[in-house]
Amino acid sequence: MFSGLAYPRLLLLRLESNLQSESLGLFALYLSSGELFLDIPNDLKEADLKKEEKYKLWLKERYEETIAKLIQLVHHENLNVKELSLCTLMRFVLEEAQLPAAKHCQSKTHFPVALFRRVVLTLTSASCDSTALIGRFKEYLSYDDVRYHLMRILHKQIISKTQDTVSDTYLNNVEALLEQIDFPSDEMEELNHFLTKYPENENTEKVKSKDEQRKIYTNLWIDFLQFKLPNCVYKKVLTILHDKVMPNLTNPLYLSDFLTASYDIGGAISLLALNSLFLLVHKHNLGYPDFYEKLYALFEPGVLHVKYRARFFYLADQFLSSTHLPSAMVAAFAKKLARISLTAPASALTITIPFIYNLINRHPNCKILIHRETPEDTQRKIQHTIICGIHAKNKETMYCAFSYLALTPQRTGDLSVAACANEMEPQPMTESPVPFQGKEQQAHEREQEVKKKPKKQLFSSKVTYRTKASKDKLARTIYSSSLKPHILACLLRDINKEMSSVVSTKTKSILRQIKCDSLANFSMDLFNQELQVQAPLTYKIISTLVKDSEVGTSVGSAVLLNFRNKHMSSLHHIIAQVLDRGGATNETIATLNKLGLCVSTSAAAKQQQELLKQQMQHIEKLMLQERAEIEKSGMKASSVSVQSSDIIGDNIDISRNPSQMSVDRRRKSWHWFLLVGLEKRIINDALADDYQLGDICRIDNSVFVPSVEDCSSLEEHFIFHIAHVLVKNVNCLKKYASCLPKFIEHSHIHESSQKSDYAILDILDKSENKSEDMISILQYIHENFIPHTEGDNPVVLSRKVFGGDVLTNERAYSAQLAMLNGSTDFDQLAGVIHRPEGLHRMMNLLLFIYQTFYKKTSAGDKGSLAYLRNRVGRIDVQGAEEVIGKYRSHFAFVEDCLDAHLVAAALKYMEIKDVEEASKFRQPLFEALPNEEQRQFIYSIARGILDRYIKLSDGLNVISMKAQALDAQVNHINSMYDNHLNKFICQPCNKKYKTLNGMKKHLQKEHGMADLEEADDSSSKYDHVAIYHASFMKCALLLRDTNDAYKMGDGDRVLSNSKFQMLLSRAGNHTKYQLWLFRYMANCLCLLTPRMAYEYKWNCSANLQGGLGNNIPCDNLVELLVQTVKKAVYAQGANATFTSVRKAALAIQVQDEIKNNIQNECDKKQSGKKRPPVSKLVDISAMASELVSIFDFVPGREHPSFTGFKDVFLNIKVDELHKWLTMNKERLSYETV
Q1: pLDDT tens digits for range 674-712
Q2: How far apart are the first and last CA of the chain?
Q3: 829: which residues sit within 8 A by CB, 6+ positions away?
Q4: Pairing mode, if any, of strands 983-985 and 992-993?
């Protein structure tokens, strides 16, 4: 059955299931080797062909079938399949351009026009929308010959069409292709960036000529615009004409008929045509005398409701910005816009009102539209106001009126003080006032109404200021007299009365509210408002003492009121709980209580009991409501609409040494277990929850190994991180920082930015280090938090994730195995699903990096990690043995080394000497380019660095292909298994074997089955120094991407990166982490239900602050809480017991709420939330200068301490990995309940 070509046939079988990777690799190889080149006469019969020619003919037929299949897949419903098919076809175009599959004469180009035409015709399908795919096609249009042939093919196709034969989908696809066409921005007349080399003859001059290509481009657009375009295409065309199309036309005036016709249509079409038409008028001298009349006609109410509103007003502002326009025309625009603004939506007013203001401000003559007033009108109003004030019943108002009349005679005209003082009623003035007309009459009537009811002061601030100065002088005179003691007595009596009113139970002061909710929401603003109402005199005195400080007024008033009445103590309770949370001893709290600054220790302890009740309510809402609802309905979590959550746990290990040891006083060692509940922020109710994703034994082993798609996706993430390093550290690239995305998008970015709800559930006097204690911990979780039925044989209704570090997971898993003989899944402790969390996973990856790349003996090897450590003096970095204990410093050093490597690679790639030097890699007219082009430029540099310096000896593709081939072999052998005989039967020779390995050896020996054993290649042709640094950058970038995935809460990236980390754990002999990463992937891919697997993958992080990029791994949250509990133990000193620590731990969260609220009230930055960034530019530049030389390729070069260094992934033996995966899949099948 098998022959010498068994392995190639096996690959051909895989070709149908993986077109992208297999077909590209096979036919690219055949094209490059010339095996697809066939040059035979047309009249030669097949029987006369040689064997080699028949083989090539057969191979070419398979090549054509592959192309046809790929063209079909371009219209596949999955976008990833579409993109992969298109990229494969264009790779074939590239390969055929370099080495054609058929003979070409010297007068023709080597460009594969026939194949390229099929690709273009597929993209411009009349029935399938290809706009999403055309965006990916843009990268190939940077080649001048590809652009030329695309335009020729499109032009011929458009000419052959008529209006009746084109569909809206076809026009939409053509427009999308035209939109992607762009020309080089330099001034070279001859183009030279080709996909293939052209023969030097006259037929290729058109391809090289930029003017010729622009001529074709112009004709293409003119013919395309002859069609009757659908509305959506019409709008997209008008949107891009002015900046993408017109600059590349031979003469933009060719578009004048199309644009004037569009401008006359009206509505949104006219708005979009406005920009291009103005460009023709302004830059190309197009005569259009009615431009401003047509623009005025566009100012209708509907213009405020279209989505192009902002663009229209921006252009209109440009058109009306000239100060040489007639004021009458500008006034007409302002009046019409003001009129339609009366019915405009609120969001539009933020545009129209500044627009009207700018028009009037540029043209001062238009200000009369707002107000026109004569001096006589102003003087008449002043006189009337003074007369009304003098005859007011209020003495203060009358005094102010006389003062103003005496001090400002120039503003009051012929009105005199004597005349007003002698009159009891206001008399008419000597001269009859001018009769009021129109608006003046209405103002006069309003003044008459005010005169009848003189309740408000009718004078300006200047009059008030002068009156106040006179009163102050009078008050100082009285206070300095013999009346001073009596005045003070009155003041004290009023203050005492106010204070009695504030502390009265009838007032219900804020300071009397000492419940948990009140303490956590205490507001100093509300307290100050209460003081202003109940005790205004006291408030003014205290605020004056503290220089009008709001915080000082609140705190000072609270302390004074507490001395008057001990029940006014809410702020004192807050201070006591903040002190307790910060680790203050009882002695400290008692001392401050005597000073009147906080409550007593007994009151604080009593209040802590209330905090515990508040915490229990929080736990009830977070954990127990879900359990109650599920148990009540008897259904799974997917059927109830309450908050769902996971459980995380870790050990608390504390050692206490007495000051003097004796027989009775020994070292105390406490081992407790902390349980934390964490809300699941990402839930998918649409997924099924009643069946398992798959059978673990039937899933191919290659699923657990990075595929080609996984590698491609990881490379894109690497490019993102590389680009951010370059714009941060290389001076000539810093201007690109604004165009780069701030983060890698994923489908749940909104949910992951929400603040997480979590609660400390309990502290158990158990240790995970003891098997019986671990069983007790899981039993406690099942009894209290896992929904189950009642009775003697309870059954689990819904399972929960139990996360932690690998040690916790391993011991909990062992505890479950010990209880497998239980009668129900509840007794078997099967209600929890284990999940290894991210912090310890990243610690393990960091440990692998130091074990692989750091040796103290390599300090003399230039560029090694130990060498760089000494170069920048990082004495806090000690190597692999200190990674776990000093994780932060070791992680920061690897991050800095990675940045230094990438900066050095950029210097080498861009051919510059240091980070301050300018590079020849630059974009002309940078500021004028759109963000997308700027981003693609910086990404192209990052891609070049990745391809040239990081992907050296990349063994991932080898591992992926061998794993797939081994899966195919095993599946083929399994198909020979006879269930009746329980043996494998060889079909060709009918021999029988009991084991799979025996059958495999027989097939390899007797039937030529391919042996996929790895061969050790230690050739001296490799630059082992370059491979060392490439491997380091790969591992460090994987660590950075994994860390970023947890920060962003990106579950898909966390799962994808676990495949790579499992391989590295195997390469570093980290058996436990390799096993748990495999179990993690097994849960995500097959062991759980679809909904549980989805939520298991996505709820891997917690966000303590809210906001993008602020997530931390779940075990990091537990570590923070463990450290907090330890601080509480140390604060209690020798009095610490399990009971006291448990109470303190359960009160921590409520105390944090109180502390955070009072910090916000005091306008202080919360401590311990985020460290300020530290500049590492000096260290990175110093390390980069040492690393530049290592990027020169020198065959046979190696570090003395790392002789024969190979790519880290090449250290993995795929056949042994395959056996290991098979063994552990079988183990999981019977260990998992």
Answers
A1: 999 999 999 888 888 888 888 888 888 888 888 888 888
A2: 42
A3: 775, 778, 779, 782, 815, 816, 819, 822
A4: antiparallel
Nearest to 66 by CA among 98, 30, 104, 113: 30
- Write phi, then psi, for 791 (nearest 5 degrees): 115, -175
Q: Which one, of 871, 859, 855, 857, lies nearest residue 904 by Cα?
A: 871
Residue type, 1189: S
Q: Which amino acid belongs to residue 259?
A: L
Burial environment of residue 452 by CB neighbours within 10 A (0 to 12, 13 to 18, 19 or more): exposed
* Residue 599, token pair as written in the block: 């409550």
949 CB neighbour count, 10 Å cutoff? 22
The two structure tokens encoding residue 391: 């005859």
Write down how long the chain is: 1233
Q: How far is CA 10 from CA 3, 6, 699, in A?
A: 11, 6, 19
**Mean pLDDT for the chain overall:** 79
**Whole-number Å distance between alpha carbons of 895 and 868:** 12
**Within 13 Å and on the Cβ side, how many CA atoms surround 217?**
27
CB 606, CB 1143: distance < 8 Å:
no
Q: Please state, in angstroms and as integers, the Cα–Cα distance from residue 714 to each residue in 326, 544, 936, 946, 1042, following that order.
A: 61, 63, 18, 11, 10
Phi, psi of 1130 (to 5 degrees): -65, -35
Specify the 3-state DSSP secondary structure of 978: strand
**Whole-number Å distance between alpha carbons of 999 and 987:** 11
Residue burial 174-197, b: 16+ Cβ < 10 Å; e: rest: bbbbbbbbeeeeeeeeebeebbbe
Amino acid identity at 45: K
For 395, counting Cβ atoms within 10 Å of its Cβ (0-12 exposed, 13-18 middle, 19+ buried), the class is exposed
Output Rg (C-alpha) for the chain, integer angstroms.
Answer: 41
Quick one: which H or E segment has residue 833?
A: strand 832-836
Q: How far is the CA of 847 from the CAs of 134, 1064, 1180, 1212, in angstroms?
A: 44, 11, 22, 18
Question: For the segment 41-74, what is each residue's pLDDT rounded down to a tens digit?
Answer: 555 556 566 777 777 778 778 878 888 888 888 8
Which of 283-297, 715-729, 913-927 has the largest mean confidence?
715-729
- How far apart are the C-alpha atoms of 1018 and 1206, rounded to whole Å? 8
Measure the CA–CA gap between 934 and 737, rounded to whole angstroms. 10
For residue 213, the number of C-alpha atoms closer than 13 Å in the C-beta half-sphere is: 26
DSSP 798: S
Instruction: For residue 597, give Cα distances in angstroms to 509, 539, 556.
Output: 19, 20, 10
What whole-number distance in Å separates Cα of residue 952 and Cα of residue 962? 19
Does pTM surpass 0.70?
no
User: Do the beta carbons of residue 1076 and residue 806 sit within 8 Å?
Assistant: yes
Smallest Cα–Cα separation from 1151: which of 692, 575, 617, 627?
A: 575
Pairing of strands 977-978, 983-985: antiparallel
Quick one: tokens of 659?
Answer: 């000051």
Kindly indicate the confidence band of residue 1035, based on its pLDDT and cuts at 50, 70 and 90.
very high
CA–CA gap between residue 813 and residue 1232 (Å, rounded): 10
Pairing status of strand 645-656 against strand 668-679: antiparallel
Which is more confident, 150 or 52? 150
d(CA 729, CA 912): 14
Count Cβ atoms within 10 A of the Cβ of residue 989 and give its class: 0-12 exposed, 13-18 middle, 19 or more buried.
exposed
Give burial (CB, 10 Å; 0-12/13-18/19+) of 824. middle
Neighbours of 687 (CB within 10 A): 14
| 992-993 and 977-978 beta bridge pairing | unpaired
